[in-house]
Amino acid sequence: MSPKPHHTPGHLIAVLTTAAVVLASGCSAPTVQQYPTSPSSSAPQTTLKYNLDTFTTCAEIQQKVPDLPPPLAPQVSKSAARLVSTCEFTTSAGGPHITFQVQAFGNEETSTGFHSGTELAKTAFTSTVPSGTEKDTEVDLGSEARWPDLGAGAGCRLEVLDDNAVMLFTYVSGKKDNAPRSEQCRESARDVSKKLFAAVQPK
Q1: How far apart (Å, rounded) are the C-alpha atoms in residues 35 and 109?
Q2: DSSP-assigned states of every residue in 72-137
Q3: Please, which residues have CB within 8 angstroms of residue 87's CB and are 6 or more apart in sequence?
């Protein structure tokens, strides 16, 4: 099996705390200004697409997409207004390595007012756009999809904004010719991303 590549996406997902969320694959999520929270009974009730308490688990994804490699131990971090879940699917025989990370946001009342989970996800997705990022107009997932420039190394990553969630789909074929910006890598990543995206859609 080829050595697991090290990804350095830089500042990608803005979160409301100042702690960076570190992926098992080496990817990190950046931060934005933290605001003190103060509960308010007058906050508007905004319905969100993804429920932080019932979001699809890694094991459930593997059941829905049986052709995925076996999942490694999941990494999940959850607070009242944010869920970060990382699933890795790989084999021990040099096959593909697939990492799926989602950061879903709940509604939050802060000193600056009410912020919906959809607003927070949009802020996270757009606050820092890495140099060399390209939009994807073919995959048709979420409201926005893009390819960040990962630089040298194997594998490519598709980033998707969908309602109150930011999703990262990282695909590494295990082959030397799978360059990050190659259409070969991106086409494989699109196929996997569509299956994973479908698997986590709310009923």
Answers
A1: 10
A2: ---EEEE-SSEEEEEEEE--SSS--EEEEEEEEE--EEETTEEE-HHHHHHHHHHS---TT-EE-S
A3: 58, 61, 71, 74, 99, 100, 101
Whether 196 contacts 85, CB under 8 Å: no
The label of the residue with tokens 């996800």 reads 121
For 193, residues 6+ apart whose C-beta sits below 8 A from its C-beta are 139, 141, 158, 160, 169, 171
Q: What average pLDDT does this structure show over 9-25?
A: 36
Token pair 């939050």 is found at 108
Taking the chain, what is the end-to-end CA distance rounded to the nearest angstrom? 37
- CA separation, residue 64 to residues 29, 57, 203 (Å): 27, 11, 13
Over range 7-28, report the average pLDDT: 37
- The rounded mean pLDDT for the chain is 79
* Alpha carbon of residue 121 to chain centroid: 11
